[in-house]
Amino acid sequence: MPFGMTITTLWLVVMVLFLVVEAATVGLVCIWFAVGALAALIGALIGAQPLLQIMLFLVVSAVTLYFTRPLVKKYVNSRVEPTNADMVIGKECRVTEAVDNIAGTGAVYVDGKTWTARSESDEVIPEGTLVTARSIDGVKLIVAALEKETV
């Protein structure tokens, strides 16, 4: 071992390192490996051979990762906070520059702001047309022409 470190101390350092990295990140990224290092540390304390300790580390890390990662992704890391920009989706907008996806042009005015716009259906939408905001792609508003009412 380097610097006169015992195997027990090594597993303790590895576990603390993973916990520090975990504490420094926003989402859960390596807690599973800290649990694996804890299992290997326990193995070292009861006198398990180094190869068995490594196997404990790998197996416990893999098992905890396999069984908890889907839950973590679903309940912790996947929270998407809506922004004020999302409030324009579904609103009526007026085209201020013809929307032409091929030419890469288009702008609409909604809620006091001008947005770069693209057509949802790739149709050219002339200036002055009323459209509906369908979604946001980066900084572009994806729009569709309002359906004309039939009598």
Helix content: 40-55%
Query: What is the general shape?
Result: rod-shaped
> Roughly what is the average pLDDT, rounded to an integer?
85
Order of helices and strands: HHHEEEEE
For the terminal residues, how far apart are their CA atoms? 86 Å
| Number of helices in the DSSP assignment | 3
Derived from helix and strand composition plus strand pairing, the structural class reads: alpha+beta
As a whole number of angstroms, the C-alpha radius of gyration is 28 Å
- Please give the number of β-strands: 5
Low-confidence segments, given as residue ranges, are none
Strand order of the largest sheet: 1-2-3-5-4
Largest sheet, described in full? 5 strands, mixed, barrel
Give the DSSP E fraction (strand runs of 2 or more residues): 15-25%
Task: Please tell me about this protein's structure.
The protein is of the alpha+beta class. It is built from three helices and five strands; from the N terminus they run αααβββββ. Strands 1-2-3-5-4 form a five-stranded mixed beta barrel. The protein is rod-shaped and about 80 Å long. The termini are far apart.
